[in-house]
Amino acid sequence: EMQLVQSGAELKKPGESLKISCKTSGYSFNTYWVAWVRQMPGKGLEWMGILDPGNSEAKYSPSFQGQVTISADRSIATAYLQWRSLKASDTAIYYCARGFPVGGVREFDYWGQGTLVTVSS
Amino acid sequence: SYVLTQPPSVSVAPGKTARITCGGNNIGRKSVQWYQQRPGQAPVLVVYDDNDRPSGIPERFSGSNSGNTATLTIIRVEAGDEADFYCQVWDSSSDHVVFGGGTKLTVL
């Protein structure tokens, strides 16, 4: 069974660092890309970036370039989203999603359950 | 950067047909995907590659794409279809994913 299981909710203070995870199973991790998508409270979906696990190459939205780091550990089929210094405006639900690699990436056919990150002093 | 424009809201009576549009420059040349997101849940893919449905998605959901507008059509709308819907493309000129702003479908 195809699954993307994300790490649990986080409550952090401004300036703290954070790394959340997306553990995949049921398919060949190297074959499909993994994207991260932000959803701020009451708002729409925002693409943050995407990783090709086959070569560990990541592409970022200009809005998130330099603000986060996307990485993966192929040995445990897990993707990560990392912040060095959180801000209150990072409060959101973060989703990982499997990207079907056709002409870049086409559809995101499987999604994680989401990780709620709350940044508050 | 490439922009996708959706109406903020669409309302439809049960049993009727809902049409949600997604506008973009020459979007007809791109592959368009549609996602349904119910409150408190992760998005679910309902249409990919303009008009294909993943297994398990009812035939009531279909898509079309031409010129500058892609459309998600839901026939015989049910109360359970009420959700936010997002269109999405891959912009090959920038190697970026683009989502539309989302449309809230209300079943009257």
Protein architecture, described:
- The complex is a heterodimer of chains A (121) and B (108).
- Chain A has no helices and 11 strands.
- Chain A has 121 residues and is mostly beta strands.
- In chain A, 39% of the residues are buried.
- Chain B has strands at residues 9-12, 18-23, 33-37, 44-47, 61-66, 69-74, 83-91, 96-99, 103-107.
- The termini of chain B are far apart.
- Chain B has 108 residues and is an all-beta fold.
- Chain B is globular.
- The A-B interface holds A 35, 37, 44-47, 50, 59, 61-62, 95, 97, 99-100, 102-109, 111-114 and B 1, 31, 33, 35, 37, 42-45, 48-49, 54, 84, 86, 88, 90, 92, 95-102.
Produce a short descriptive summary.
Chain A has no helices and eleven strands. By secondary structure, chain A is mainly β.
Summarize the SSE layout with pairings.
The complex is a heterodimer of chains A (121) and B (108).
Chain A: E1 3-6, E2 10-12, E3 18-25, E4 33-39, E5 45-52, E6 57-60, E7 69-73, E8 78-83, E9 92-99, E10 108-111, E11 115-119
Parallel strand pairs in A: 2-11
Antiparallel strand pairs in A: 1-3, 3-8, 4-5, 4-9, 5-6, 7-8, 9-10, 9-11
Chain B: E1 9-12, E2 18-23, E3 33-37, E4 44-47, E5 61-66, E6 69-74, E7 83-91, E8 96-99, E9 103-107
Parallel strand pairs in B: 1-9
Antiparallel strand pairs in B: 2-6, 3-4, 3-7, 5-6, 7-8, 7-9
User: Kindly, what is the distance between the CA atoms of the first and last residues of chain B, rounded to a whole number of angstroms?
Assistant: 36 Å
The pair of chains with the biggest contact is: A-B, 26 and 25 residues
Percentage of helical residues of chain A? Answer: under 10%
Order of helices and strands of chain A: EEEEEEEEEEE
Tell me the major beta sheet of chain B.
6 strands, mixed
Number of helices of chain B: 0
- The average pLDDT value of chain A, as a whole number, equals 96
Shape of chain A: globular
Oligomer: heterodimer
Radius of gyration of chain A: 14 Å
Low-pLDDT regions of chain B: none
Instruction: Tell me the series of helices and strands of chain B, N- to C-terminal.
Output: EEEEEEEEE
Which structural category do the helix and sheet elements of chain A fall into? mainly beta
